[in-house]
Predict the 3D structure of the following.
Amino acid sequence: MMHRFWRMLRLLALLSIVIAAIAVALVMRGAHRAPASLIIATALGIGMTVLVGTGLMALMFISNSSGHDEAAAPKIRQEDDKE
């Protein structure tokens, strides 16, 4: 299970790098004399946002497919029935 997560995380990290590079290229194209701080902030901001968002979605899908969610479902249903 963890091997699947780490393989997925490597692919998501690659996706984040590609998207950050595209964002930096667009910033450089729009602002001919962009300061280095703007380029670094763009790359880190876009890259980390994509990595965190896709990583959380990957964890959700892995959790669902591992059966952990189904183990918690009867407890939730029991609590709903009491109300």
